[in-house]
User: Fold this.
Amino acid sequence: MILPDLEKNDGMLQVAVYQPDRENFGAWYQRYILSRMTGGEKDIQELRNLTSGKTTIVSFPLEDEEELN
Assistant:
């Protein structure tokens, strides 16, 4: 069951899961997260939503550096 949204600007929602369905929901949610985190660029709002606002962006200048592979 989706619970009422108390903070509409955070990009999140709360879900109540029936206790006997907890393992099934956990497995589904893990697959969902893994499918969404496939790499590539993310915008700042996606990062803030994923980390509950605990996001720091660090820039590493890599010009003229050796390839790390």
